[in-house]
Amino acid sequence: MGKPTGFLEYDREVGKNREPKERLKDYKEFHLSLPAEKQSIQGARCMDCGVPFCQSGVLFSGMVSGCPLHNLIPEWNDLVYRGKWDLAYERLNKTNPFPEFTGRVCPAPCEAGCTAGLNGPSVAIKENERAIIDTAFKNGIVKANPPVKRTGKKVAVIGSGPAGLATADTLNKCGHKVTVFERSDRPGGLLMYGIPNMKLDKEVILRRINLMAEEGIRFVTNANIGENYDTNEILDEYDAVVLATGASDPRDLVAKGRDEVKGVHFAVDFLKANTKSLLDSNHDDNNYISAKDKNVIVIGGGDTGTDCVGTSLRHGCKSLVQFEIMGEPLKERGDNNPWPEWPKVLKVDYGQEEFIDIYGKDPREYLTTVTGLHADKDGNLESVDTVKVEWKKDENGRFGPVPVEGSEKTYQAELVLLAMGFTGSQNYIKEAFGVESDARSNIKANEKDFKTNVHKVFSTGDARRGQSLVVTAINEGIRAGIAVNEFLRK
Ligand SMILES: Cc1cc2nc3c(=O)[nH]c(=O)nc-3n(C[C@H](O)[C@H](O)[C@H](O)COP(=O)(O)OP(=O)(O)OC[C@H]3O[C@@H](n4cnc5c(N)ncnc54)[C@H](O)[C@@H]3O)c2cc1C
Ligand code: SF4
Predict the structure, then answer these.
(1) Nearest bound ligand to the CA of residue 76
(2) Which residue CA neighbors atom 30 of ligand 1 most closely?
(3) 246 C-alpha to center of ligand 1: Å?
(4) What integer pLDDT is reported at residue 388 of this predicted model?
(5) What is the DSSP secondary structure assignment for residue 117, as one 8-state letter?
(6) Which of 26, 58, 369, 470 makes a 20 to 30 Å CA pair with 64?
(7) Does 67 contact ligand 2 (Cβ within 6 A)?
(8) What is the Å distance from ligand 1's center to 228 Cα?
(9) How far is CA 169 from CA 25, 63, 211, 343, 480, in A?
(10) How far, in Å, is the centroid of ligand 1 from the Cα of 229?
């Protein structure tokens, strides 16, 4: 620990967000970094407290607290304070193969577990992480490091999201020859075609993919395994196959008119088309679902909903409302949600911040659900019926939403975006390989050896554990890589 009294002397400081009015004009990253000297001071706030929940990555009350990658946080905080950026990168690189992703998009469960957060602001761990890797790239010390010896074994990784990339990286480092197959035209999974550019610039992903390719990993895009690529050929050619195909079956809306009206889209379809058109032609091809001049309804109050809010505002929507079926979270931790649990508190994310800047109020309506959708004579969405709900226990003691009589309301809307989460892994992938599902429609694979019921076929990431976070997908990917290496070595 560089400065024992650092947490008493220095306040937490994080980089600024670009002003909403300015950032709404483009899709560039909105979050700016602190200058290096200021970031170093943030390293001094770490007490190396001896109870580093920050790096323990465990579940408290079913929610993760601490870093799932077990990043050596107190060590690199100290090196950041001492200005030893290269050494800090070496330590960070030991546990996290892609800190430039997590340093931008991770919700930072490490900070929830930080001891300084017990009675004050936690250490700015995520920003220290981003500063370490961005500085390392700037200083040219992140270089391709191919394995010196190859084992002669070949592995196919299906899916190039963070889990697939982490598996590929781990196995390549072990000397196996890895090919990553991706059905989209660009690799990266939801990093590329889910999380919008303003949160994670796509050049940051391509920079990493290029490094991995230099290290010997082969990327094959537009390869939809089980659809336009034969599964048997893959099974014949490779010594192991890892399904890192994500949990891309979206949860649908159950409401009158859902199947008849035009203008209702899944959030990921909306976000993917937007990013693809942006990257292909700076939107000149018009090949995306536009919210321009439309009254937009976003259903779902989570991060994906926020991305839809931010994107719709950039398109120039006419109005926007975001519905959330749960109640409004508390502003401060409740008594039943103590440190170091993940704080279940109200978050005003970038999309809401931008909406508030324009309209002076939060777009979220809580305890609200959609009951019906209406179309005009051409079948285009025209309006949406809603009702308020109360959460009550039924006769079996289970909580559920109950409509509040007299609270019905109709909203004019030409675009509805469904951001209600995912129900599991897509069936055609499971059928193509003959792998079993678990009770939640994920691919059934053991958490220790990541094996499915099919010989030499493994699964990892959201495909195996269900919808999660980038940091947990990377963790899963590394562990699956280790398990596959053990299998190949036997
Ligand atoms: C809109 C959105 C925003 C999010 N924002 C955040 C955030 O800010 N922070 C955070 O931590 N998490 C966020 N998440 C969650 C996070 O992105 C995921 O948990 C993570 O990407 C899962 O990684 P994965 O590699 O398991 O799967 P994915 O990222 O889903 O990647 C799976 C890949 O497999 C490919 N694939 C599927 N089937 C086939 C096939 N048959 N053949 C070839 N390829 C195939 C898919 O095209 C995809 O590229 C967000 C999720 C969404 C939807
Ligand atoms: S990966 Fe996430 S949890 Fe881990 S140190 Fe970085 S921001 Fe924190």
Answers:
(1) 2
(2) 246
(3) 5
(4) 98
(5) G
(6) 369
(7) yes
(8) 20
(9) 36, 28, 10, 33, 11
(10) 21
Long-range contacts of 427-430 (CB under 8 A, 24+ apart): 427/249, 428/226, 428/227, 429/158, 429/225, 429/226, 429/243, 429/245, 429/463
Per-residue pLDDT, 50:
84
- What is the mean pLDDT for each group of 10 consecutive residues in the chain (490 residues)? 86 97 98 96 92 89 93 96 97 98 97 92 97 98 97 98 98 98 98 98 98 98 94 96 96 95 98 98 98 98 96 98 97 92 94 97 98 97 98 91 97 98 94 96 95 98 96 98 97
110 in contact with ligand 2, CB cutoff 6 A: yes
Of 253, 250, 184, which is closest to residue 422 (Cα–Cα)? 250
Cα of 394 vs centre of ligand 2, distance in Å, is 39
Contact by Cβ (8 Å): 301, 417: no
Which residues approach ligand 1 with their CB closer than 6 A?
105-107, 158-164, 181-184, 189-190, 194-195, 223-226, 244-246, 248, 267-268, 271, 303-304, 307, 429, 461-463, 468-471, 473
Ligand 1 centroid vs 151 CA: distance in angstroms?
Answer: 30
pTM for this entry = 0.97
Full DSSP string of 76-105: HHHHHHTT-HHHHHHHHHHH-S-HHHHHHH
Q: To the nearest 5 percent, what fractions of the chain are helix, strand and coil?
A: 35, 20, 45
E strand or H helix that includes residue 470: helix 470-489
Residue 144 has which token pair? 């391709």
User: Which 3-state string (H, E, C) describes 381-399?
Assistant: EEEEEEEEEEEEECCCCCE
Burial class (CB in 10 A: 0-12, 13-18, 19+), 161: buried
Predicted local distance difference test score (pLDDT) of residue 252: 96
Q: How far is 179 from 158, CA to CA, in rounded Å?
A: 8
Q: Which pLDDT value is given to residue 213?
A: 98
Q: Return the H-helix or E-strand segment holding 463.
A: helix 462-465
